[in-house]
Amino acid sequence: MTDAFASLPAPASEPALSPPRQAAAWWEHRIYPSDLAQVGRVRADLRVDLAGFTPDLVDTAVLCATELAANAVKYAPGSGEFLRALALLDERTLWLAIVDEGGGSGLPRIPAERSDTEWPLAEGQRGLLLIDSLSKAWGHYPVGPGSARLGLGVWAIFPVPPR
Prior knowledge:
Blueprint: E1 25-26, E2 30-33, H1 39-49, H2 55-75, E3 81-90, E4 93-100, H3 127-134, E5 137-143, E6 151-159
Antiparallel strand pairs: 1-3, 2-3, 3-4, 4-6, 5-6
Helix pairs in contact: 1-2, 2-3
């Protein structure tokens, strides 16, 4: 992360994995038009790419990718495309990111201002809470050189069970 973004708030669970510089394996990045109708394609492609992994890991990654892709479309208005990146950091860690083209005004966060009685009634902003619960860790990183913000990547990592 560059110094220009050092003061931006980040999720408390964010380790330095944004994005990884090295991985045991990378899948080809996939690019989708920024349209909610594409989320089904994201799910289908991810299921194909993760063939051979445990069904529980695949279902968890697909659910989180769905939330991240929907957020990329919703919170980066005017963005033409978003990218899905996927890597096996080591034999026990899967990294998934959705990267938008920017244009959003805020950073991803779990709403902290809701009380325990308000959460059950809330109609939105539950996606990151779901990702926080299902992933080992999640976070975000700016895309672009220096202080230029050309997009935002939101990532999650998942433990890979032994085969």
